[in-house]
């Protein structure tokens, strides 16, 4: 196990907070709009799928969730063009931006930590 630098641990916590805020915002929005269960599933399932990978600290889960968050970002921007005064959409947009930026920083810094450890490893052979 490669130890995390303090900055890497900080952005990981920020990314996880962004995911939690995004899930909360999506659930709140579905509840406010009295959406049927199918809509709840379509909004929450693409995010929930990646939670086990995030909990196990898999960088691929962070990367794939960044792709999913871009789709959520596009839908939120379209929605804000229709109603710019929707506070739930604004909160979800902030959550998406928080997760995306923190997630990408985490993946980059964590990859650098893994590369530094592997470059210091003794050669076998």
Provide tags for this entry.
single chain; 125 residues; 5 helices; 0% strand; elongated
The SSE order reads HHHHH
Overall pLDDT? 92
| Overall form | elongated
How many H/I helices?
Answer: 5
Can you tell me the residue ranges where pLDDT is under 50 for at least 5 consecutive residues? Answer: none
- Strand-residue fraction? under 5%
Structure summary, number of beta strands: 0
Indicate the percent of residues in helices: over 70%
Q: Outline the biggest β-sheet.
A: none
Measured between the Cα atoms of the first and last residue, the distance is 23 Å
Structural class computed from helices and strand pairing:
mainly alpha
Radius of gyration, whole Å: 17 Å
Can you give me a brief rundown of this structure?
The protein has 125 residues and is mostly helical.
Describe this structure in words.
By secondary structure, the protein is mainly α. Helix content is 82%, strand content 0%. The chain has helices at residues 6-32, 37-48, 51-55, 59-82, 87-120. Helix 1 (6-32) runs antiparallel to helix 2 (37-48) and helix 1 packs antiparallel against helix 5. It is elongated, with a radius of gyration of 17 Å. The chain starts with 5 loop residues before the first helix and ends in a 5-residue tail after the last helix.
Q: Helix and strand layout, with pairings?
A:
Layout: H1 6-32, H2 37-48, H3 51-55, H4 59-82, H5 87-120
């Amino acid at each position: 196990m490669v130890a995390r630098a303090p900055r890497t641990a900080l952005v990981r916590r920020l990314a996880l907070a962004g995911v939690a805020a995004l899930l909360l915002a999506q659930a709140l929005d579905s509840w406010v709009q009295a959406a049927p269960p199918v809509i709840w599933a379509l909004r929450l399932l693409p995010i929930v799928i990646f939670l086990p990978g995030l909990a196990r600290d898999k960088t691929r889960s962070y990367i794939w969730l960044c792709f999913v968050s871009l789709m959520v970002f596009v839908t939120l921007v379209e929605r804000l063009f229709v109603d710019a005064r929707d506070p739930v959409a604004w909160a979800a947009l902030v959550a998406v931006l928080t997760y995306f930026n923190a997630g990408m920083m985490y993946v980059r810094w964590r990859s650098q930590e893994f590369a530094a450890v592997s470059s210091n490893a003794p050669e076998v052979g």
